[in-house]
Amino acid sequence: MTAAGKTVNNGVNVEALLGAREALTNAPEAARFKWRAATEWKNGTHSHSTVESFYGLGEEQRRKTTFTFNADHPEVFASEDKGATPVEYVLVGLASCLTAGIAAVAQNRNIQLRSVTATIEGDMDLQGILGIDEEVRNGFSGITVKYVIDADAKREDIEALVAQSQKRSAVYDIVTSPTNVTVLVN
Amino acid sequence: MTAAGKTVNNGVNVEALLGAREALTNAPEAARFKWRAATEWKNGTHSHSTVESFYGLGEEQRRKTTFTFNADHPEVFASEDKGATPVEYVLVGLASCLTAGIAAVAQNRNIQLRSVTATIEGDMDLQGILGIDEEVRNGFSGITVKYVIDADAKREDIEALVAQSQKRSAVYDIVTSPTNVTVLVN
Fold first, then answer.
1. What value of ipTM does the predicted structure carry?
2. Is B140 in Cβ contact with A103 (below 8 Å)?
3. Within 13 Å, how many C-alpha atoms sit on residue B75's CB side?
4. Which residue of B lies nearest to A8 if distances are taken between CA atoms?
């Protein structure tokens, strides 16, 4: 219940998150997380990945479930289309990160969400990855995310929710700012 | 068969890829692709995404299969762990992109792969996304990918395979270089 007497439930435990923030402010070592995946080449461009353990709160964390993913290229690239392409995984990561953030911020701001849907599209000129034109980058030239949000709030408050989610999104930061990647063999 | 009489099969149709490169050199408009996902908020930090259509070769492309993905936060964040976290999706995308590239480059270089596995780990200080320390970024402070590759090739040739895959990887580029993201509401 809020001062206005309105009870909002977006399914996000904001008290736990605020408690975590306070706890981790006093124990910065516990805030150091390691997220992981393991990938096995199957055949051609098809690979199979698993996501299970991670490290955080000062210790190894194991889930009840192992999440599994197939990645491949589509048939127009003479592949077998056994899974989403790697770049589509990035789009799923970005849209799901922003969407979780919208729910968490809405809960914290006492805004009841009814529905949130996003369509996300990344433009890519294949002249990059095919090595046709060295001036063309391999990745996306740009990404557009379009939200349709039905919530018990004014339009400006809904826009502010989305802006705050961008500000605190891990994947938005990964995509918009450079990250150092080290690749080792054996 | 090669000049050395060795037949290599990694399941990658390199002739088709080289043909595509030639065709797209002469028809740059066909090289402009759009990759997509659609994401629906379910409850809390849980969302459900679908990947199906894309645009390329000058027209809408539809797959036989719709790929579906759940994303969520783990129980230590007071969530229900109904799917991998958004940042783990990025790790799956990066490892699967580099792995597909290794297979394609190996085929082109006449190197028979026997097995390729990767473990990928991203370091993240949660003081960023929790807003504890403005100096800490929201995303990964760094990512390390470790490959174990069994192939019919010298170590230096295997290392060169991995280096070439990085050079041509869409997701490696997305993670290591900034991409413009536009987020629109309604």
1. 0.96
2. no
3. 7
4. B44
